[in-house]
């Protein structure tokens, strides 16, 4: 990816996940066409509240013999 960014094959990148976290390749730090962000994934107040609503909704649906809000298939 670094080579592709340097050579222009990839115009730019916004990255929050790295192969060897928390180590970020030095080359990425030096590129103007790359934006780096800490890997916070779903760790926001809003996403945690939505996840809690989904869990409660799924539990209510399950115990009411209703379809789950987020179906799961075990392949």
UniProtKB/TrEMBL annotation:
Gene Ontology terms, MF aspect: glyoxylate reductase (NADPH) activity; hydroxypyruvate reductase [NAD(P)H] activity; NAD binding
The organism's place on the tree of life at top rank: Eukaryota
Gene3D superfamilies, alphabetized: NAD(P)-binding Rossmann-like Domain
Pfam family membership, one: 2-Hacid_dh_C
GO CC term (a single one): cytosol
Keywords noted in UniProt: Oxidoreductase
Domain D-isomer specific 2-hydroxyacid dehydrogenase NAD-binding: start-end pairs: 2-41
InterPro entries in UniProt: D-isomer_2-hydroxyacid_DH, D-isomer_DH_NAD-bd, NAD(P)-bd_dom_sf
PANTHER family for the chain: 2-HYDROXYACID DEHYDROGENASE-RELATED, D-ISOMER SPECIFIC 2-HYDROXYACID DEHYDROGENASE FAMILY PROTEIN-RELATED
Protein name (Swiss-Prot/TrEMBL): D-isomer specific 2-hydroxyacid dehydrogenase NAD-binding domain-containing protein
Native source species: Linum tenue
């Amino acid at each position: 990816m670094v080579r592709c960014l340097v050579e222009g094959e990839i115009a730019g990148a916004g990255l929050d996940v790295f192969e060897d976290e928390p180590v970020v390749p030095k080359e990425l730090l030096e590129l103007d066409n790359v934006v780096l962000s800490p890997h916070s994934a779903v760790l926001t107040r809003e996403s945690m509240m939505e996840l809690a609503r989904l869990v409660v909704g799924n539990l209510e649906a399950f115990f009411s013999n209703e379809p789950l809000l987020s179906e799961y298939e075990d392949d």
